[in-house]
Amino acid sequence: MKFTLKGEVLFSKEADEALEDITKFIEEANQDLFLKGVAPDQRDDASQVVKWNLAGNNLHLEIVSGRRGRAHDALLRMKKPLTQILGPQYHIGVRKITVQDYKIEIPSPEMIDVSQMPYVETAQFQNGEMVIEFEKLEEGDLRKHVVDRVVKHVLAETERIASAEDEDADDILTRQVTKIEPGTVVGRSPKFPVFFEGDPTEEAAKQGWVKKFPGKGQWFYGPKFTALQRAIEDIFLEVLVDKLEFFECTWPKLIPIPVMNKMRYLEGLPEGMYYCSAPRRDPELFKKFKNELLIKKEVPIDRLKDGLKDPSYVLAPAQCEPFYEFFSHEVLDEKDLPIKLFDKSGWTYRWEAGGAKGLDRVHEFQRTELVWLGTPQQVEEIRDATLEISQELANQMELEWYTEIGDDPFYLEGRKVEERGIEFPDVPKYEMRLVVPGAEKGVAAVSANVHGTHFTEGFSIKETHNHTLWTGCTGIGTTRWLFGFLAQKGFDEANWPEMVRERVRKVRTPEVLTWP
């Protein structure tokens, strides 16, 4: 794959006096800036400025790259450091970035239709390659990832056509950032006795612990299931949350779309959320809705759609969203760090589409969400502590587990452009899974993440001395932990470890003649 870009950087005034510094910057960018985030064995794919000239207040550039460090990303990366170099000494700012010509060559088995995609000027199939040329692109277009979307579409179609085992565009940054191959198992428990055979979901329904709710991926969790859940929650609160001095908050679960946009979640997983619309202030329309409902005895969905505004919220898909918004545009002092908060007040909502099944893949589930903010060292140490304590708790509960390098850090999904100043940890995500006997893969019960400066940059969270701030979060999936627990220990309390058994309250399931 080859990217060939001809672009311009428009300065606020003529920059001839800064020619020497600009020359030095471009040389250093080729040797360092453009290599950030590119694996050592893939540096031939990194961007390089191959031609350039300065004409008054216009810096003309030709940038060539392969797949891993794309030319348009390199152009965006140049803006901030150029401003830092030219501003203080020469009082020159970067006024505008423009791409005049952009050609991308992508290997493909056949012609792929991109004619309906925005900003594509021409597309041809030549010598086993798609050759795509773009219209003139402004900086805003690049930051909206219009080029990446075209590339992603072509790659996806190429994979579908050729059934090639190629790396999907969404995974590129994840694999660049993560220093250990995603999926690598980095920890495993000893073997423990298993007292249950079968499907925990079927058995829970059979014994009246749960009942299917009409909504897809939803369940009614009865007294016995909830009593066990509270017992395990209490153990985590005592042994992990309180020990690490996290303080409880209650956060909104209805998240405004602009907040999700700042998180970059919409660029990565827009299809994985529930969107919410408020009703219009139109009494006459809703009067018609009620009348039609009374007459037809069925909900007039089309009439209801007419009464709804455009979506303006999502139901919280990560549960940590309000934390970053709370600190947005605030200034902190390093001496007061780290800040450690948690929320266990409600549901996390995700649209699993066809992936919903049983109690382990549901559309709404309970979690204890721990989020923290601090120096890079503090943030990584806290993440490691939450993971280590979770693993030790599983051992104390005599649950088999393994921990692997996560392959889908949610916050990286939308981060297609790694701007200068964005720092990523060596391992963005650890995922701890409880073994499900008979299943190929365990159930993911704990997700321990370090975000680097992704959210502190995106939400403009500052330290008063301009020191670097990182964030991290660990989600303890209570519902999934219960699923793994029941899959191994079963429903007979006599087989449960004492630390769990002694905390479970005695409850009674409602007596119903026709259920379970």
UniProtKB/TrEMBL annotation:
GO molecular function: ATP binding; metal ion binding; serine-tRNA ligase activity
Record keyword ATP-binding present: yes
Annotated Serine-tRNA ligase type 2 tRNA-binding domain residues: 1-159
Places the protein is found: Cytoplasm
Reactions performed catalytically: tRNA(Sec) + L-serine + ATP = L-seryl-tRNA(Sec) + AMP + diphosphate + H(+); tRNA(Ser) + L-serine + ATP = L-seryl-tRNA(Ser) + AMP + diphosphate + H(+)
GO biological processes: seryl-tRNA aminoacylation
Cofactor: Zn(2+)
Top enzyme category: ligase
EC number per UniProt: 6.1.1.11
UniProt entry keywords in alphabetical sequence: Aminoacyl-tRNA synthetase, ATP-binding, Cytoplasm, Ligase, Metal-binding, Nucleotide-binding, Protein biosynthesis, Zinc
CDD domains membership: Gly_His_Pro_Ser_Thr_tRS_core
Pathway this chain belongs to: Aminoacyl-tRNA biosynthesis; selenocysteinyl-tRNA(Sec) biosynthesis; L-seryl-tRNA(Sec) from L-serine and tRNA(Sec): step 1/1
Assembly and binders: Homodimer.
Family per similarity comment: Belongs to the class-II aminoacyl-tRNA synthetase family. Type-2 seryl-tRNA synthetase subfamily.
The protein, known as: Serine--tRNA ligase
Gene: serS
